[in-house]
């Protein structure tokens, strides 16, 4: 089996310079940024010339005293820090932007370092807003200003969508990243706990997004479940294991993620992803099948055939008997369909991808209608009721969704069918004993187990 290797310095690089923007916030706004580095802060600035609504690397300037003691010339400006800025919406006179991940740079960093006495270059840098001319030169000068600036640039680059594409491998990375974040939220990992994972290593990732995460592995405890997935699929192709446990003594989260990539996908053939969440205490199973519709909004016949083959392999799980008035779920079928909007891969771990999640019952009905004679196939337009990722994570965490009382061996049979039919599976096994709320009666059941 393969394990993530330590990150090599400078291994994360972009094929082109990121989008840059100059911001001139006041002292009050900078204090807000300084108080909470991960919080999103919104403000308006007099600039509407953003070329595209995508994240930019923000160069934040400190407010300068406009005059010196003699009152006749401006003081040199300096860079307060770096962050990420995302255009939000236009107003009548300006553009509202959202700033996040901003952090102060130690020492006085001269703003003039961006043009290095080149008057022509200085004239191309905007007063405020996106840098649209000589971006490569400005970015290169920014990185040379000081080691502290270079360190901040390296911290922020993985959070930008630059340099990431839409190849089959990158889209599988996107789906695995998305599933890992969703299931980690269900398992109790807060977004701020992902901070050590921002040093994702593209070179180490190879066939799996999970193998590019460094600095998060812990020694798994030796019991009957930990490591069993990796052991079962170790000879399939590429198997990567990462364990995530709370560094605090309260055991707030404790789960293991295993990525299995079949040899035919490792060798370059196209594949897709099924993602599994399994909660040990309640034996709850939830499965996400990741599908991407074509430009016409329809799922390919290959995707539909693969789903049919998968369902014929696994069958339907038995519906568990209710143990009490407070022990019930909204849905006992573990299978959901995850459909993305047409977005590229990004290494950023602090957000899920845009899109929707549909229960299998709705999918089955839509597929049945779409296979009628004369119809071209399943269209996502026919899938009306759906969940956004945040709602889905909350409902699974609270025990409302998923099939319960599923033996782990049965769950691994599903995983095997996934690897055979789509090529890649991500399995997250949650060992926490945290109650699952009113949806599953997990608290009562956990007490009975103890």
Describe the protein's architecture and organization.
- The longest helix has 20 residues, at 168-187.
- The strands form 2 sheets. Strands 7-8-13-9-10-11-12 form a 7-stranded mixed sheet, with helices on both faces. The chain has a 6-stranded mixed sheet with strand order 2-5-4-3-1-6.
- The model is unreliable at 1-15 and 441-450 (pLDDT under 50).
- The two termini are 34 Å apart.
- The protein is elongated, with a radius of gyration of 25 Å.
- α9 (301-314) links the parallel β10 and β11 (335-340).
- By secondary structure, it is an alpha+beta fold.
- It is 28% helix and 22% strand.
- It has 13 helices and 13 strands.
Compute the CA-based radius of gyration: 25 Å
Largest pleated sheet? 7 strands, mixed
Envelope shape: elongated
Structural class: alpha+beta
Low-confidence stretches: 1-15, 441-450
Per DSSP, what share of the residues sits in E-state strands of 2 or more residues? Answer: 15-25%
Keywords:
450 residues; alpha+beta; seven-stranded mixed β-sheet; six-stranded mixed β-sheet; 28% helix; elongated; disordered N terminus; disordered C terminus
Q: Could you provide a short overview of the structure?
A:
By secondary structure, the protein is α+β, with helices and mostly antiparallel strands. The protein is built from 13 helices and 13 strands.
Task: Set out the fold topology.
Elements: E1 20-23, H1 27-35, E2 41-45, E3 56-61, E4 78-90, E5 95-110, H2 119-124, E6 129-131, H3 135-144, H4 147-156, H5 168-187, H6 202-205, H7 228-232, E7 237-245, E8 254-262, H8 263-266, E9 272-279, E10 284-291, H9 301-314, E11 335-340, E12 355-359, H10 360-370, H11 389-397, H12 408-421, E13 423-430, H13 442-449
Parallel strand pairs: 1-3, 9-13, 10-11
Antiparallel strand pairs: 1-6, 2-5, 3-4, 4-5, 7-8, 8-13, 9-10, 11-12
Helix pairs in contact: 5-11, 9-12
């Amino acid at each position: 089996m393969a394990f993530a290797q330590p990150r090599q310095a400078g291994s994360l690089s972009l094929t082109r310079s990121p989008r840059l923007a100059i911001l001139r916030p006041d002292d009050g706004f900078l204090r807000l940024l300084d108080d909470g580095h991960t919080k999103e802060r919104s403000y308006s600035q007099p600039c509407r010339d953003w070329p595209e609504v995508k994240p930019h690397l923000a160069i934040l300037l400190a407010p300068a005293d406009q005059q010196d003691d003699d009152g006749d010339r401006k003081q040199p400006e300096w860079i307060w820090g770096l962050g990420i800025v995302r255009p939000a919406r236009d107003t009548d006179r300006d553009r509202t932007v959202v700033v996040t991940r901003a952090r102060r740079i130690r020492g006085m960093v001269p703003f003039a370092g961006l043009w290095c006495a080149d008057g022509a270059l200085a004239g191309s840098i905007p007063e405020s807003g996106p840098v649209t001319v000589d971006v490569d030169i400005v970015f290169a000068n920014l990185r040379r200003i000081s080691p502290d600036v270079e360190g901040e640039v390296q911290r922020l680059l993985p959070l930008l969508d630059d340099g990431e594409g839409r190849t089959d491998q990158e889209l599988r990375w996107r789906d695995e990243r998305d599933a890992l974040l969703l299931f980690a939220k269900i398992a109790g990992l807060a977004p701020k706990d992902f901070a050590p994972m921002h040093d994702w290593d593209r070179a180490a990732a190879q066939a799996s997004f999970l193998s590019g995460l460094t600095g998060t592995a812990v020694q798994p405890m030796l019991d009957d479940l930990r490591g069993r997935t990796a052991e079962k699929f170790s000879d399939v192709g590429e198997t990567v294991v990462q364990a995530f446990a709370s560094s605090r003594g309260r055991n707030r989260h404790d789960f293991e993620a295993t990525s299995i990539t079949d040899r035919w996908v490792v060798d370059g053939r196209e594949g897709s992803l099924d993602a599994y969440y399994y909660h040990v205490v309640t034996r709850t199973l939830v499965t996400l099948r990741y599908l991407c519709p074509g430009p016409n909004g329809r799922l390919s016949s290959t995707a539909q055939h693969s789903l049919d083959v998968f369902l014929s392999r696994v069958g339907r799980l038995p519906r568990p008997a209710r143990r009490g008035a407070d022990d019930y779920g909204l849905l006992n079928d573990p299978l959901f369909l995850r459909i993305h909007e047409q977005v590229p891969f990004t290494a950023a771990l602090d957000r899920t991808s845009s899109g929707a999640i549909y229960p299998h019952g709705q999918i089955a009905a839509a597929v049945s209608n779409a296979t009628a004679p004369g119809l071209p196939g399943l269209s996502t337009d026919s899938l009306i009721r759906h969940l956004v990722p945040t709602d889905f994570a909350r409902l699974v965490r609270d025990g409302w969704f998923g099939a319960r009382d599923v033996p782990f061996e049965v769950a691994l049979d599903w995983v095997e069918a996934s690897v055979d039919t789509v090529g890649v599976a991500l399995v997250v096994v949650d060992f926490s004993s945290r109650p699952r709320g009113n949806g599953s009666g997990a608290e009562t059941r956990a007490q009975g187990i103890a």
